[in-house]
């Protein structure tokens, strides 16, 4: 199929094929770059969130560890002895020591927390919260304690018991430790994390809401929280979210202590904007290059393809025989010179063809004249031999009739320069000839049946007479009985036919076939020139459908059919 494309199409396809690999390679490279950066964004966001979660969990673990280990302190064990209740001074002194230890822990801890210790046996309570009076009530702790920190709106609270088995039933506990820290600690860490990174971290709980940094985007986090509620969140993971025509990557990790999720999100477009700008610039460059390529292709089309197509069409018309074709051209480039040379060539070919055609017509007319000149002496020789024979036989009437017929014959052929005659004129000539032959052959008769509608049709001169002459000489004369010549005519399907039949000796099928074949061969000394000349003249004048054909006649001899059409 490619071989059928013209030069312009191949050039256009070549330009397109040059752009396609470049565009494909850049698109692939851009996608790979975006994929790598997206993976880095996801990995970086997850790592930052993991680091933040580990920091929070580390601080919470320290608080939890202190809540578990504080019950093992000797001073606390001593403070909760039942017999120690009767020593008020010692109890106050010991409680002050315990509070000092608790304050020292707060001073050493990264997060300031409120620590409260309940002594169910003695009904006492010690707390670092100095401004509130805290007492122990027996019905305060009846429900099992949660293993995770509980959110109370502005702080997280966690309980520890001694023994630890009392977590499920605090009424059996010897010591209950309550540790709480405000959410400001979490917000401070969220602020620090946001300053040091490009994300916007927050804490999320499906039932209790969110804890955000001080500069958080509330609308975005609210929309994102709704998607987090609708999604099935595992222990950790990430996903892409479309919020306000902006795509974000969201990473989350579940806290093992708080039963909340640490969540962070980053806008993908903001980070990918340099690559996106580079990609758009490349596509704009490709578009400009494509426009320039189209402009170049258009110039090539106007300057090269149009003249080539014009030259191809002109060549086709010239090869089909239209030598009058001329190509329009303007300008002074190479194609204008080529088109001008084509016009000169076409003009010279047309002149040459016209000269050859005129020469062919002259040769055709000369050939017709030559053929007709051959038939005239042939008939004249026959007539002169007949007069000689009749004169020897003292048949004056036949000699006079033949002489008169011969005079009419020469008057007929010299009356006009035209090579054709009407059927009426041909039949008049044949009638005179048959009357002469009837005088010579008293046993011969003839009939002529030609409709009036074809009497005025044209045919080559001296077409009918040689056929009738052959029928008499070769058909009737060798036969001793009486003979008959029948001439009929009719028209059908635009063709005209004259049929000459005789009741002579006839011919076999092989002889008729050989006679028919001889009409198409060159003339030689072994065949008569009369019927051959008639056949050739008919073909020259009326085309290949015209000519003579032979077959057997119902009268017993040969039937010769003369076929022709209107003059070409």
TrEMBL record:
The keyword Phosphoprotein applies. It is a multi-pass membrane protein. InterPro entries: Bact_2-comp_sensor_kinase, HAMP_dom, HATPase_C_sf, HATPase_dom, Sig_transdc_His_kin_internal. GO terms for molecular function: phosphorelay sensor kinase activity. Keywords: Cell membrane, Kinase, Membrane, Phosphoprotein, Transferase, Transmembrane, Transmembrane helix. The keyword ATP-binding does not apply. Residues 302-354 form the HAMP domain. This is Two-component system, sensor histidine kinase YesM. It is found in: Cell membrane. The chain crosses the membrane at residues 281-301. It comes from the Bacteria.
């Amino acid at each position: 199929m490619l071989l059928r494309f013209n030069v312009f199409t191949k050039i256009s396809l070549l330009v397109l094929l040059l752009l396609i690999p470049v565009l494909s390679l850049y698109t692939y490279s851009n996608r790979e770059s975006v994929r790598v950066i997206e993976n880095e964004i996801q990995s970086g966001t997850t790592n930052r969130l993991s680091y933040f979660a580990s920091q929070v969990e580390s601080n919470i673990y320290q608080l939890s560890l202190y809540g578990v280990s504080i019950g093992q302190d000797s001073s606390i064990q001593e403070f909760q002895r039942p017999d120690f209740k009767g020593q008020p001074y010692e109890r106050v002194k010991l409680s002050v020591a315990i509070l000092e230890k608790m304050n020292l822990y707060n001073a050493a801890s990264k997060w300031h927390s409120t620590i409260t210790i309940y002594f169910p046996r003695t009904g006492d309570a010690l707390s670092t919260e100095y401004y509130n009076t805290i007492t122990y009530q027996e019905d305060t702790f009846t429900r099992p304690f949660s293993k995770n920190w509980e959110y109370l709106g502005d702080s997280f609270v966690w309980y520890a018991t001694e023994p630890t088995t009392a977590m499920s039933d605090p009424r059996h506990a010897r010591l209950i430790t309550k540790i709480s820290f405000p959410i400001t600690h979490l917000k401070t860490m969220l602020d620090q994390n946001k300053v040091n990174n490009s994300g916007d971290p927050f804490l999320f709980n499906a039932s209790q809401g969110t804890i955000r940094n001080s500069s958080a985007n509330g609308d975005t986090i609210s929309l994102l929280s709704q998607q987090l509620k609708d999604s099935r969140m595992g222990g950790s993971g990430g996903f892409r979210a479309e919020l306000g025509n902006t795509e974000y990557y969201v990473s989350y990790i579940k806290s093992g202590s708080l039963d909340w999720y640490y969540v962070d999100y980053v806008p993908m477009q903001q980070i990918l904007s340099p690559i996106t700008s580079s990609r758009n610039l490349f596509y704009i460059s490709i578009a400009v290059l494509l426009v320039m390529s189209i402009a170049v292709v258009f110039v090539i089309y106007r300057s090269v393809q149009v003249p080539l197509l014009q030259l191809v069409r002109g060549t086709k018309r010239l090869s089909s025989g239209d030598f009058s074709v001329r190509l329009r051209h303007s300008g002074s480039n190479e194609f204008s010179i080529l088109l001008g040379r084509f016009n000169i060539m076409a003009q010279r070919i047309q002149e040459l063809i016209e000269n050859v055609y005129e020469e062919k017509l002259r040769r055709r007319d000369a050939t017709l004249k030559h053929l007709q000149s051959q038939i005239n002496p042939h008939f004249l020789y026959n007539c002169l031999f007949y007069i000689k024979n009749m004169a020897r036989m003292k048949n004056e009437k036949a000699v006079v009739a033949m002489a008169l017929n011969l005079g009419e014959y020469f008057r007929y052929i010299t009356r006009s320069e035209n090579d054709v005659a009407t059927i009426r004129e041909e039949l008049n000539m044949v009638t005179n000839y048959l009357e002469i032959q009837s005088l010579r052959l008293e046993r011969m008769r003839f009939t002529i049946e030609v409709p009036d509608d074809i009497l005025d049709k044209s045919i080559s001169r001296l077409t009918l007479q040689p056929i009738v002459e052959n029928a008499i000489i070769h058909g009737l004369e060798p036969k001793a009985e009486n003979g008959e010549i029948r001439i009929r005519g009719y028209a059908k399907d635009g063709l005209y036919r004259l049929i000459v039949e005789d009741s002579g000796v006839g011919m076999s099928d092989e002889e008729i076939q050989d006679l028919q074949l001889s009409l198409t061969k060159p003339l030689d000394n072994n065949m008569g020139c009369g019927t051959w000349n008639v056949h050739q003249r008919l073909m020259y004048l009326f085309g290949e459908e015209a000519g003579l054909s032979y077959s057997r006649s119902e009268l017993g001899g040969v039937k010769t059919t003369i076929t022709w059409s209107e003059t070409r």
